[in-house]
Every structure is written in structure tokens, then in C-alpha cells.
Amino acid sequence: MSMNMKDIEFQSASYNQWKEEAVKALKGKPFESLFTKTIENITLEPLYTQETLLEKLGDQLEKQVSTIRSLTESASFTVAQQINGADAASFFANLEESLLRGNEMITIYSPVAFDWSEENLSKLATYFSENSFKVTVKSSEDDVLRVFDYIDKSKRAAVKGFIVAPEAILLADYPNVRTYAADTVPFHNDGANAVQELAIALVQAAELAKDTDDFKTFENKFFVQFAVDTQFFAEVAKIRAFKVLWKAFTSAFGHEASAVTVVAETSVRSFSKYDVYVNLLRAGNEAFSAAIGGADVITVHPHDALTALTGQSVRIARNVSLVTKEESHVTNVIDPAGGSYFIESLTADYVKEAWALFLEIEKAGGLHAYGIDAKIEEVYNTRIAQVETRKHSLIGTNIYANPVDEIPTAENAQFADVKRIALPFENLRANFAQSGLKPAILTFGELKNYKPRADFVQGFFATAGIVAHQTAGFQTIEDAVQWLESAEYDYVVVAATDDDTKAILPTLLQSKKANVVLDVAGKFKDDEAAWTANGLKGFIFAGQNIVQKLNDVVTRVKEVQQ
Length: 562
Prior knowledge:
The chain has 562 residues and is an alpha/beta fold.
């Protein structure tokens, strides 16, 4: 008997029915154990349904979706590849190459490695007359801004672009150059979370709006710039949330909101100098979330942006945008995330929390009076703690690290001050490289029994750029003692099952040389006091702060060798 799938109807289950089954599966654990907290202190639920979303937002859901769509300029985005060059000749060669290869917006980070001479400014003016641009400057005195003096007056009205600066740049005769930037990138690079970034953007917008007599003129000159991190759905929700916030913001000024321009660049705060090709995956993830969130301009930083760029890395970064734009089909739909129960809920949470924080900052008298730097520092410290304990994975750095990776010596000044979460591990590797420490793993018993712990310890060491010598599993305590007495290693970790460890460790502690630091893999709370009293230095286990532990190992080895 044949069965037509079209005729089959599956019974729908309510949220409460699903919850009942989940509670059974948890076998005594509380249902709340399925909930997680984001770094913004927003609770993520294990399941989102239309039922729960409507219960949470009601009529507000439809308003949220329609607001986001009405305030989105276009379903597509502009590819804005940053132009770099060691000198003027290579800069303009790279600029020309990028335009030929699909770049749609000339993106410049100033200062550059050469002088903006009259010849160079005149040449740049030609490109600005024919192409849109984004220029980031440190101040209104930056030499590159003199380029606008070199553009023919008859062409100035048609020139389109963005200027990112700490203060509004006043340009006469350039109606289509947006110079009022709410730039949250510096705060993002210091560690700010999504809610803080959204609130900061509104604070900056309020400051800029106060300095203009006509709000509509301000709105036509305004844009917001975000850095987009690796938290995919969070970043989609962040960009969407700003559009809802923008409508509330303009309403507070007594105006009807127009589409707000969102400029985005991929974040480098999750970039690492080790295993740099993972940065390529991070940037691709970030660019895709920016496109789904509704960014109008996207810059993708190359995977080796922290050190020295290559022609290949620049091309790959540009192609990330091109593939997203041309092959993903995501730009065929305005607000492709619209209607997703999870993203709509997260968007609403961001709107609520960011607006409350914005009002709080305004009441305090501004960002400085509110103490935003200290608040961001707290978030950054939380991020670092999560990475150091592997609650947040940084592939190739704090987990699945390649111990033979060598750190490049070059450094890109543009990102030198970014508070990257990989920095503690990069510093850890440097510390171990200078120490000359010689570690080993003493394994005992059958391979299948000790291998999980031995592999864990090797992975632990790999984050510091170390490959520890590993013994074959000793079968007798006598063999293990003999090896320990004769081995020329500074630091030894015992890796065995709980029972084997308890059986052999007291003897090993009696036999080890005074200048050898001995640790154990695993947690042994009942035996900890007795073992440490007899010379054991510590333990290695999951959830431990890797950076603190391994730096402490270096210190202890130095102490016993003195």
C-alpha cells in the first residue's frame, strides 16, 4: 500500500506539551537548566514558538517587523573593500585592482603609510568623483580630507560617501556625503556588548542632532557604523534592533523616521594571530550576519589583518562579500530574518534593554558621566574569563590549538589597540617560549583508559604552543617510578583513570626529584589535601582557567629550580 506524504498530517504540539517532555528527558534536572544567559544578561530560551512569541510581544511583533522593513533602504548591500598600500603607488594600484575585481566602495583608513601630497589628493579626487567611498579619520585635521578641495565643483553634488570621524565634519557643496557618524566600532573593540553598542549609537546620534537646526538635514547626513562579531544571531538582531530604536529616537524629536543607513565592518576582536585561517571563517560568518541583519555597506577585514596583508588575503575577503551578495540569495529579500521566532524575540529584548540604557546614560549626563568605559571593561573581563575557561570557544587558540604555529612578527597598527580575546593566549605562548620549560605526561594503564585524559592534557599544553612528551602507558608502579626518577623533565602530569591515579600517586610523590613539578589530570577533592601536603603541586581539569594555570606552572617550575 503506497502512502502519499501530502495526505499525512502531523499533530502539532504546544509549548507546554514540549516542556513536559523536556522535563522528563532531563531526569531530575530543573527545566531552567536549559536556559542560558547572554553577555548582555538576556535569557535565551530552549525553544521559541509562535505561541510564546505572540504571548511576549502581541501586536508589537507586527509593528516591529514593519518598522524594520520600512527603515531598510535596500535588500542588497554595497561591497566596501578597504584599500591598503605601503606607498602611494601600491595604494592606487590596489585601489584600481579592487574596483576591477568587484569592490563597489573605496574604503580608506587614515592615517596611511604615505603622505597625501597634492598629486595623490588630485588622483584620489578623480576616483571619488566616480565612485562612492568611506573614509575613516582620526580628526577633522586629517590631510586626506583636503581631497574635497580637488573635486570639480560641478561634480560635487553627485559625490556620494561616508566620513567616519570623532566629530561631525562640515563639508559645503556635498549634499550626498554623510558626515554625522554614530560610530560604535571603538567601543566594540574595547569589549562592549550589543546592548551597550546600541545605546551608545543613540547617545551619539542625540549629541549630533542637538548641534543641528534642522532635524531632516541631520537625518540626511546621519549614519551608524557597527562592528559585527561572531555571535551570528545576536548580530543579526543588533542591526535589526537599531532600526526599531531609530524610529523611537526620531519620534522623540517629533519627526517621522526615514530609512537609516547602517554601515558595518567585520570585527577583529575575536581574531587571533595563531591559526589565522580560522579568522577567515569568522569574517565570513560575520559578513553573512550583517547581510541578513540589513546592513547597507559591508567591509570584510582579511584573515591576516592583524599582521601583514597579502594580495590573496585581500582578494579572499572581498570575495566573501561578493559570494554573500551574488550567490547566497539573501539580498533577494528585505529582512530575511523577519518572522524568525528566536530573532524577533532577541530583537525585541535588545530594543527594550538598549532604550532603557540610552535613557539612563542621558539622565547621567552623557557617556563620560555615566562611566561607560568602566562598564565596558567589566564586559571585557567577563569575555576574557569565558575564553580562558573555555566557556567560550576560540578555535585554534583556546581549543584545538596547533602548538607548532609561529606568531608573525609584523603588526598592523590599525588593530593594535583592539582588546582581542585571544591576547591572553598569545601572551601565554610568549611566556612559555621564553621559559624553556620541558613538560611530560606520565601515562599509566591501558591506552583506552588513559587516552582521554592524556589527550586533554596535550590539548591543554597546545594552547601554550607546547607538545609534551608522552610516555607509553606503564603497566607497573615500579616502571613508572623508575622513569620519573631518571626523566629529565621540569613538569610532569600524571594521566590515568581515577582508580589508577589513587593507587600510584602516593608512591610517585615519594620518588620524584625535588626539582620536578608534579600535577595530576582530573579532580580529586577527597585526596587533594593529602596529596598537596606530600608534594603535589596541582591539578588539570575541564573548566579550569587555562591561562592562570599554565602561567602558574611556569612560575612554580622557576621556583623549584632556584
